[in-house]
Amino acid sequence: MGPTDVNRRDLIKRAGAAGLVAVPAMSMLSACATGDGGGDNKVAKGEKSKDNPLGVNKDAPLDFVIFDGGFGTQYGKDAAKIYERKYGEVKLTATQKIRSVLQPRMVGGNPPDLIDNSGAEDMDAAALAAKGQLTELSPLLDAPSIDDPNTKVRDTLLPGTIEMGQYGDEKVWRLNYAYTVYGQWYSKKLLEDNGWEYPKTWDEMLALCAKAKKKGIAGWTYAGQHPYYIPFTLYPFIGKIGGPEVLKNIDNLEPNAWKQDAVKSAFEAYHELAAKGYVLRGTPGLDHIQSQTQWTKGKCIFIPNGSWVENEAADTTPADFEMAVGPVTGLDDSDKLPFGTLWAQAGEPYIVPAQAKNPDGGMEFLRILLSKQSAQNFAKLVKSLTCVAGATDGMEAEMSPGLASASQVLKAAGDNVLNPRIFDWYKTLHKEQIGSVLAELMAGRMKPAEAMNKCQEYADKTAKDDSVKKYKHA
Q1: Are residue 146 and residue 227 in the same domain, yes or no?
Q2: Quick check: helix, strand or coil at residue 61?
Q3: Least crowded by CB within 10 Å, which of 59, 195, 235, 293?
């Protein structure tokens, strides 16, 4: 999901209008769960010290697989150089096919020491954790941070980061590195050149889209081939209308959660965009790169996306585009949450396999990534925030337009930051099933009431499926 879903191939086989048949689950984690080859092949422990709090074997090599997506790989290469100054050589492998490349190694008991488990072919971390395939990361979180030996790593992280790695208890199984701001991305220049104001209510949104249509500019586009992009604005829209509990009910697979009034209002609003011709023609057939390119060409105003888009769309973005992200447009004054509410959370998940030869090295590499030096380097390279609190303070003058905008809206949101979990708790439900329904809704091929019923049907099937581990908000 999010930065974890950039530069991916299309794994969603959208159902036809007649059927909406769900695609089989992407993961084959039952195979991972049964693989126990290799036995205990871990390298010898190193001696713990003030400079080596995790006891890394300084002579042991480190096997690191990084996802080659919207964030690129340079930030990982730079961190590897820092690691190698104190420890063994880093073997860095870049790929977009995380599951295809690594599943055989997970099954065979010979996984890498650290994995950037991202992209369309990411492995289901929740399932891996449930099957004992991951290293618990408390030793990393309780270790002293590189910047301040008197401060634990866990105390340097933005709110919600640790929670994103938990699955029903206090144990932490993954570390999400990037801090993604989701919302309605747009060009400030386009709005300013036309004298248009950013819409705060849905009536204002429709009025803006009508004005744009008269000038041959669409209101919206999105990644039609990847309809799970639509929730980047739809989920926080639902939460803004009805409050956080509405999203928690959806996450918890509560009966009739998809039939709540806030969902109905949001579905009707989005359906109206299609019904009134405010969605860029041909959008259902576009992938994420194509839709972003149409957007940067000025063919439309808004695109639902995450803060990785500035880096991913850099090649097609005009120098004076003034890329920005806005919080979700609300419905009206009856909304439970104020304007400025948005969805922001830690993404780009890193995991250390339980059967890794050098798990201490994997955690130490993460400790390096969580230093201010690496966090600032990441921000400069890929125009996105990390989960390290305050890492970019004082960098405002150096920030790119999109990064500066993301930082500003995050600060302005204050406590009104939503954190839905359906996308990572129930990946198949979110990506393939809900995604296929939203594709039909936004293409105008399905009415809101039917879409709500179909989403609820899929959620109910997931709730009744004993093979799917269930999670609950506290």
Answers
A1: no
A2: coil
A3: 195
Instruction: Give the C-alpha separation, 202 to 34, whole Å.
Output: 51
| Residues 74 and 192 placed together within one structural domain of the fold | no
Instruction: Out of 358, 373, 403, pick the residue that ends a domain.
Output: 403
How do residues 311-339 score in pLDDT, each as one tens digit? 899 999 999 999 999 999 999 999 999 99
Rounded to whole angstroms, the Cα distance separating 185 from 221 reads: 11
Give the whole-angstrom CA distance, residue 392 versus residue 204. Answer: 34
Q: What is the CATH number of the domain that holds 266?
A: 3.40.190.10
**How far apart are the C-alpha atoms of 176 and 423, rounded to whole Å?**
14
Residues 169 and 264 in one domain: no
Q: Nearest 10 degrees: CA dihedral of 440, 443, 446, 451?
A: 50
User: For the CA atoms of 437, 440, 441, 444, what is the dihedral angle to 10 degrees?
Assistant: -170
Environment class of residue 92 by beta-carbon count within 10 Å: exposed (0-12), middle (13-18) or buried (19+)?
A: middle
Residues in the chain: 474
> Which alpha helices (DSSP H) does 261-331 contain, by range?
261-275, 288-296, 309-312
Q: Which of 57, 36, 49, 47 is nearest to 358 (CA)?
A: 57
Residue 65 covered by a domain: yes
Number of C-beta neighbours around residue 275 at 10 A: 12
Question: Tens digit of pLDDT for each residue in 264-278?
Answer: 999 999 999 999 999
Question: For residues 351 and 356, what is the distance between their CA atoms, to the nearest angstrom?
Answer: 10
Return the bridge partners of 179, or none: 346, 385
Q: What is the pLDDT of residues 100-148, one digit of tens each?
A: 999 999 999 999 999 999 988 999 898 899 899 999 999 999 999 999 9
In a domain, 470, yes or no: no
